[in-house]
Amino acid sequence: MHVTFTDADLAFRDEVRSFFQNELPEDIRRMRMQEIPLEPEDQVRFQKCLQEKGWFAANWPVEYGGTGWTAVQKYIFATEMAEANAPNVIPFGVGMVGPVIYTFGSEAQKERFLPDILASNVWWCQGYSESGAGSDLASLKTRAELVGDHYVVNGTKTWTTLGQHADWIFCLVRTSTDVARRQEGISFLLIDMKSPGVTVTPIITLDGVHEVNEIHLDDVKVPAENLVGEEGKGWTYGKVLLQHERAGNAGVAQTWYRLRKLRAQAARSVRGAAPLINDRNFMRKLAATEVELKALEFTDLRTLAAVASGKAPGPESSILKLKGTELQQAVDELYVDAAGYYALPYVPDQYVLDFPPDERIGEGTESNTSLRYFNYRKASIYAGSNEIQKNIIAKHVLGL
Amino acid sequence: MMLTESIEKFIANDYDFESRQKYANSESGYSEDVWRTFAELGWTAVPFSESDGGFDGGPIESMVMMQQFGRGLVVEPYLANIVLAGSILRRLASNTQKAKWLEPVIAGELQAALAFVEPQARYDLRNVETTATAEDDDWVITGKKGLVLNGGNAGLLIIPARTSGDHNSSDGISLFAVGGLADGVTRQSYPTVDGLRAAEIQLNEVRVDKNAALGDIGGAYSTLEAVIDEATLAVCAEAVGIMQIMTDKTVEYSKNRMQFGVPIGSFQALQHRMVDMLTACEQSYSLLIWASTANADGTVDAKKSISALKYQIGTAGRKVGQEAVQIHGGMGVTWDLDVAHYFKRLTAIGQMFGNADWHLDKLAV
Fold first, then answer.
1. How many distinct structural domains can be found in chain A?
2. What does the mean pLDDT of chain B come to?
3. Is A174 in contact with A143 (CB distance < 8 Å)?
C-alpha cells in the first residue's frame, strides 16, 4: 500500500539529517537560506562534499560508486536533502549521462568518464532539443557523419541548461536517415565542448537570467569512440534517461519547504498591519494547495512502495511529474499573491550574500518572488511538457 | 472611435516591440520623445476639464486608451502622471495649483507621481504612517513611501501624510505636493519586473509651505480612494488589451508551429484551451464595459464593478497569461519573445491596487 519506515530507516534518516545540518559548508548553507544562486564553483564544492561522504551518486549501482541504498533509503535521502534546503545536484552528469554510460557504454568509456562525473571534475550538459525538435524530439536534425575514425557533427542544440559552464555535452544526433522509423537513425554521442566548431550562445530567459543556451556545432570532429553503444540505438538510451528525468521530478519535499516558509511569512505582521493570515481567500488557496501536496506526497510513497518491493510502479507514478510541476507553480503563484506590491521591484543587486536587511526593498517578502514565478513557467514545459505527459498517460495507462 | 484609431496607428507605425524594449531599457525607463508626442496629440489632456485644457474624458475614454496602451505594451508613464497624480490635481487643486502643476504635467514638461503605497500597508489606503506636522505656516513631513510609480523621475511627488488620527484611520489623511528634489527627500529608484520604473522614497523632515496642501487638511481619504478606483479601472483596461493580444498571438503561433508533422494548433486539446482563452477575454471585456459605463454614469454598483473586474483580471487574466506562455513552449519563457513581456506586465497588474483575493473579499459580503 504505502511505505512504513523501519527503525533502521529512521536511524538512517537521522544520520542523513545530521549530515545536512552539520556538515555542509557554512557559506553554502547561508546562500541557500538567503536564496542566493550558487556560482559554479560553489555548486561543485557542494557536490564534492557529498561525494566525500560517498553520497553523491546515490542512485548508481555499488560497482560504479553508488551507495547500494534501498529504494526507501534513496527516498529518505532525497527528502532530507530537500528539507534541509540543500542545493540541488546538477543532474546532467551524475543523473543522466552517467547512468547511460554505465548501462550502455564500453569499458573504456566507463573508465574514462565515470570517475570525473563522480568527482564533479567535469561539468556535463544535455544536447537534445532543437528549434524544430521540442516535444517532437525524434524529428531532430543535428547530423553526425562517420568519416574514417571520427564523426563530423553539424547542427544546433537549444535550451541547453548551464551549457556555458560545461566541459562536455551528450548529444542525440542523427547518424542515418535511411530508416523506417526516425528514432532508429538517432545515436548517442559524447562531445568535448572545447572541440573546434563548438560555439555557445546565451539564451536569456524572461527573468533576465542566463541559464540556457544554444550550442552550435559546425563541422565538429568527434572521435568514433565517443559513440555510446550502437549507432541507431540513441533514442532507446535517451528514453531510459528521460524516464529518470521524469521520475525524480515530483519535488514533494522541496515544495513542502516552500509552503512552510510561506505559512511563516503569512503569520508575520509588519508594525501592526494585518498579517496575511487575515486574508481568508489567500489562506483558502494555501490550504487547498497543502491538500494537493499531501496527496502527491502519498502518491510518491505508493510509487516508492512498488519500487521497493521490486515491482514496476503503477499508473500513479506517471502523474508525478505532471502534478509535481503544477504544484511547484501553484506555490510560486501564492508567493506572488503574498508579496502584493512587493512582487514588482526588480532588484537583482539584493541577491548577494548578507545583503543588509534594513536596505532590502520589500520587508518580510522575498525580493525575487516574481522572477521565480516567471522562471518556473518552464517546469510545465521541460522534461517532457505536461501535454506530452498527458498523451503518454492517456495512451499507456488509459489505453486510449 | 477616433482616439482608439489614433493610438492604434501610433503603435502600429512607431512603437514596435523592439522600440518598446529600447525605451524600457533607457535611463529614464521611457522615451521622452514619445511622451512629448503623447502631449502634442492631446492624449495627456483627455481626462481633464475643458477649462483646464482638456477634453472632459471619463472612464470610457480611459478604457479605450488604456486598452490600446496594453496592446502596445507601452512603458511611457501615463498611469502615473495622468491617471494617478493627474486625477488628484483634477479633483483637488486650486487654480493656482493647477497652473503650477497640472498645466506642465499635461504639457509633458513635468513628471509626477502619487505615493499611495507604504511598505507596511499592503493594499490598505488608510494605513498611513507618514506624518505631516504643522510648524508656523509650513508642514513638516516624515515617513516612507513604497512602490512609487515614476517616483524616481518625478519633479512633483504627491504625498499622502497623516495630519491627525491614529495610523489606521481614514480620517486625518492629507495630501501634499512635494518637489522630487526637495531637502530631505531620498529616492531609491529601480526597474519593476514588467519593464516600468518605481522608487522607494524616504521623507526626512521635508518642509513644504501651506500652499502645498491639496484639498482639505485631514479629508483626503475619499479622494485618494476615488483616484485609486479610477486607476484600478485603467489598469484593468490595459490588462484586457494585453489578454486579447496574447490570445491572438498564441492562436497565430499554434497555426505556424509544426511538430509531429502538423501545426500544434491542430491538436484538439490545445484548441479547447485557446477557446477558453477567448472566452476569458470576452468575459473580461464585458465586465470592463460594465464597469466603465457604471463609473461613467455613477450608478449604485459602480464601486462594486471595479472589484468584480479586478478579480476577473486577477484570475482569468492570470490563466490567459499562463496559457499563452505554455502554448508557446520554450519560446514563451525567453526574454526575446514579446509574449513573455506581456505576461510579466499582466502579472504586475494582478498585484496592483488590490489583487484578486483582496477584491473578492470586498465582494463576498
1. 3
2. 97
3. yes
